[in-house]
Design a protein that fits this description.
The chain is α/β, with parallel strands linked by helices and 199 residues long. It has seven helices and ten strands. It comes from Paraburkholderia sprentiae WSM5005.
Length: 199
């Protein structure tokens, strides 16, 4: 299984730290050239490898950590996303609700990636918390997952556990997923909730 993180801002780097902590190889890509990402990647760890966007999207599992509307640029890289798992770690805070056509933000993104197995996850924690060791006080920090495709979820649960997190299943994008998706300038109720599951 190969992994990549698309977007190398605060959230992308936080996720890269989670991979590096467990010595899991991960490609990282952004609008910038790979050489521009190299100093930050090296500072995080040797398992983090900057790639071009075209190379990074070849991974089996991709975590989308870009500003909301930039998902469209990523989606254009491949004509078909069949066989890939896409984890949506974006937030649509500040995006006018009418621009989403009344849909949850993750549904808008999912429709841009035809064929992908799509899961919302890793988006509700601030970057500094996401970057920290998820083992806290005898437990593991929680990440929330939601999807309209039940078959897409188990590999993401497995990844979350490999990274040291505990996962909590919220259900579909329109129901449970709405608990972790911003609407306009309003944060959903589970955003920023730093929960720990006891071992």
């Amino acid at each position: 299984m190969s992994y990549s993180i698309i977007g190398f801002g605060a959230v992308g780097q936080a996720l890269a730290r989670a991979f590096a902590r467990q010595s899991i190889e991960v490609a990282v890509a952004s609008r910038r050239e790979p050489d521009a990402l190299l100093p930050q990647a090296r500072a995080i760890g040797p398992t983090v490898s900057p790639k071009t966007l075209q190379d990074a999207v070849q991974a089996d599992t991709l975590i989308l950590a870009v500003p909301f509307w930039e998902h469209r640029n990523v989606a254009e890289v491949l004509p078909d996303w069949q066989g890939k798992t896409l984890i949506d770690a974006t937030n649509a805070f500040g995006v006018p609700v009418e621009e989403l056509g009344g849909l949850p933000s993750s549904t808008v993104i999912a429709r841009a990636f035809p064929g992908a197995r799509f899961v919302k996850g890793f988006n509700h924690l601030p970057a500094d918390v996401l970057a920290a060791d998820p083992k806290v006080g005898g437990g593991r920090r929680v990440v929330f997952l939601s999807s309209d495709d039940d078959a897409a979820v188990p590999p993401v649960v497995n990844l979350a556990e490999r990274l040291g997190f505990a996962s909590v299943w919220l259900g579909s994008l329109g129901e449970g997923g709405s608990l972790v998706q911003a609407r306009g300038r309003t944060w959903a109720p589970l955003i920023f909730q730093d929960l720990v599951r006891p071992e």
